[in-house]
Amino acid sequence: MEKIFLYPSALFASRKPHQVTTILGSCVAICMWDKKNRIGGINHYMLPLWNGKGLASPKYGNIAVNKLLSKLENLGANKNDIIAKVFGGGEVISTQKSNMNIGERNIAVAKEILKEYKIPIISSSVGGKNGRKIIFYTESGDVMHRFIRNTKNG
Amino acid sequence: MKENHNISDELLIEELNKRLRGYKDALEKLNELNSQLVEVNKKLTESESLKSHFISNITNELVNPFASILGLSKSIIETSEKNPEKIKKMAFLIYQEAFSLDFQLKNIFAAAEIEAGEALPQISNVNIIELTSGLIENYYNESQQKQINIELIDNISNDNKTPFLFKTDSEKLTIVLSNLLSNAIKYTNKKGKIVIEIKQEDNMLHISVKDNGIGISQKDQKVIYDRFKRLDDGINSLNRGHGLGLSINKAYIDLLDGELLLESTEEKGSIFTVILPESDIESDDLSSEGNEIFFGNDELF
Predict the structure, then answer these.
(1) Which residue of B has its CA nearest to A122?
(2) Residue B99 to residue B76: CA distance in whole angstroms
(3) Which candidate, A86, A100, A98, A64, places its Cα nearest to that of A134?
(4) Which of A135, B2, B277, B281 could form a disulfide with A144 if both were Cys (CB 3.0 to 4.6 A apart)?
(5) 3-state helix vs strand vs coil in chain B, percent to 5
(6) Per-residue pLDDT tens for B19-73?
(7) Residue B292 confidence (pLDDT) above 80
(8) Are B198 and B163 in contact (CB under 8 A)?
């Protein structure tokens, strides 16, 4: 199985089995998996919403969810068979002001948009003070998850 | 009884005032949020219209240079071999057109890659001085046309002959610096001066590109990183380009964990500084701590 490291602002989806690792701080990663076709994909966004500034990259939650979904659909996944797992959004940097809760806002965006698309979140590990390392298997949809300390803001 | 009633009246008024103030505060906050939303909405609409503007623009930007290249190469074929000077001149023009085309295409592909979430760092040991002086050479023709002098200040090479190597993504750094250098040449007046300074501070690589061109106003500094945004946009603009350069730079520098700083005064010039940390790509694996959790597909909550 090919191993991939997913960088922030990137996304990955494939029909072939891959093992995708990523490290999350306040960022959120959404793993999407089509349970019938066994096609999986994952994104890793840093900020909740694109507001027209800079490039419309998957650095932003609203862009990252749409792009991952359309990529999966291009690969042959069916929206009605897709389930989601949501990770990250920790407040790893404690000095932030209350209205700057990026982690929390990242989580909220994931929930809102997935609800809009009627994609069920079947499991999640979000919030808290720690960073996370997750490994996503695109073929089985499984996710290995581990808390880590002293992460950067990824 | 009467007094009691009076007091409660006062209390009532006080309470009402307090609530009124509360509503007022809430209303103010709501207005503030609303104006933020209006602003975002404006930006999004603007971005959309810039995008369609871009698509119509790009046709000209790509088709015109190709037309010149085709025309010029045809004339070369038809020119008699006894006129080498003429052939050389035309070949030079073809080179220029092809160079700018290549630069623009690289930027367009870079932007597409970033927006698709497929831009990944490819780290190698990069000879920064060699990379930068190579770039300056590439832009020699463009700078000479405006008689702009480009100076390279090297503060990282040691006296001993081993070259300074820095672990980063050379392709992305090349695009970032090309965009800065190309902009500096575009927006510097004739006979201007561009200084590229390279140094290392606290293990961070600093590359600054300083010009004495037209500068960027405080107001415009907020929008230069927006995609498709060009400050001299318009039919009469002398400069080519499509306004992708700085938004690509921002995204690439983000990817490399760096920072892009800007100091600029109108009519005096601008300094763009790229600050990059050295990549630690070998050590991206983390030690196990024994708190692994398995998220299979059966649990539902």
Answers:
(1) B300
(2) 18
(3) A86
(4) A135
(5) 55, 15, 30
(6) 999 899 888 888 888 888 888 788 778 777 777 777 776 777 778 888 889 999 9
(7) no
(8) no
Q: Is the dihedral of CA B191, B237, B225, A58 positive or negative?
A: negative
* CA gap B197, B149 in Å, rounded: 14
pTM metric for this prediction: 0.76
Strand extents, DSSP E, chain B: 124-127, 149-154, 165-168, 193-201, 204-211, 259-265, 269-277, 293-295
Tell me the H-state helices in B82-191.
84-115, 128-138, 140-145, 170-186
**Chain B residues with beta carbon closer than 8 angstroms to that of A58:** 115-117
The minimal CB distance from B295 to the residues A23, A145, A147 is found for A145
Residues in A 14-43 with any Cβ partner in B closer than 8 A: 23, 33, 35, 43
The pair phi, psi for residue B276, each rounded to 5°, is -125, 140
Instruction: State the nearest Cα–Cα gap between B287 and chain A, in angstroms.
Output: 9
Answer whether B117 sits within 8 Å of A54, measured CB to CB.
no
Q: Does B234 touch chain A (CB under 8 A)?
A: no
Pick from A93, A38, A84: nearest CA to A61: A84
Cβ neighbours of residue A27 closer than 8 Å, sequence gap 6 or more:
A8, A44, A45, A46, A88, A89, A106, A153, A154
Query: How far apart are the C-alpha atoms of A71 and A65, rounded to whole Å?
Result: 10
Q: What angle do CA B92, B93, B94 make, to 5 degrees?
A: 90
